[in-house]
Amino acid sequence: MSAIELEGLTRRFGTFTAVDHLSFKVEKGSIFGFLGPNGSGKSTCIRMLCGLLQPTEGRATVNGFDVAKDPESVKRSIGYMSQSFSLYRDLTVGENLDFFAGIYGLRGARLADRKKAVIELTQLGPYVDRQSGQLSGGWKQRLALATALIHEPEVIFLDEPTAGIDPVARRELWDLLFDLAASGKTLFVTTHYMDEAERCSDIAYIYLSKLMVIGTPAELKSLPEVSPPNTKRVSVAATPPAVGLRAAHNIEGILDATLVESELHLLVPEAMTNETILDGLRQPGLTIGEIREISPSLEDVFVSLTRRLAKA
Ligand SMILES: Nc1ncnc2c1ncn2[C@@H]1O[C@H](COP(=O)(O)OP(=O)(O)OP(=O)(O)O)[C@@H](O)[C@H]1O
């Protein structure tokens, strides 16, 4: 049995379809990245999978429980950490953990065991008596994760868990997520950060409420729509980048050009030489670096696929 299964899961708000016939499975122990632009339907889908919102059509199971028929069992068996997590600022870290444990009916020795386990995992020990409103963003996020794990759920939904925290805290939170997955927990994560998407075992990309692609990061990069036969992808630093991008679009025979940070990523025919590319880019006021052949990044994957769909 997969940890999560969706079959034609759909949600409409009036005449608007926010989630349109999604079907896929999430295997136990995976870190499943659920990606898509703002408004593509990710949160609506998660709310259905957490038993918080009824589907209009289709079905889904989480831990074997049907989200529409048995939402209470779903809620008990999952952890949920949202963008705007609901910690009580005036309560200490320890009191917050007690509060959320109480919701799940944990008491006595079981409560003590679970508190100890989540504090150890998230390393919140030194902060147990601190008011949670006084924690830094990264430590608040750890506390939110600890509260989501207090009842030992098998599946954890994390809706942009690292939004607004610094790069070091992000990396540390991801290390925790790896530990959880290694212990057999299933993580369903939304993120807008491509480096985080790279760390997922599988990725689904949602666009305009529909599933566009699903697969491992490596599978997505080798899709023929992303890496067509007889083409190569190169990167070249260009200053100023916007001028470089405009110049790149005028290179004869170029198949695609995008800016990834300050580098141009160009998709060109395999036979195109570096000289041709450099000649095409040469123009007053533009400084060009060395040309390097690269494999596509996930950002290249989503940009390529989205452009194709927009043109279709
Ligand atoms: N209760 C509601 N009533 C009407 N429309 C809604 C409701 N909830 C969500 N929507 C609409 O459904 C669409 C999908 O929203 P959703 O929040 O699921 O997107 P998202 O992919 O999670 O976006 P983000 O990345 O910004 O969090 C949006 O156009 C939103 O306005």
UniProtKB/TrEMBL annotation:
InterPro entries: AAA+_ATPase (IPR003593), ABC_transporter-like_ATP-bd (IPR003439), ABC_transporter-like_CS (IPR017871), P-loop_NTPase (IPR027417). One of its GO terms (molecular function) is ATP binding. Keywords: ATP-binding, Nucleotide-binding. Residues 4-233 form the ABC transporter domain. It holds the Pfam family ABC_tran. This is ABC transporter, ATP binding protein. The lineage of its organism: Bacteria, Bacillati, Armatimonadota, Fimbriimonadia, Fimbriimonadales.
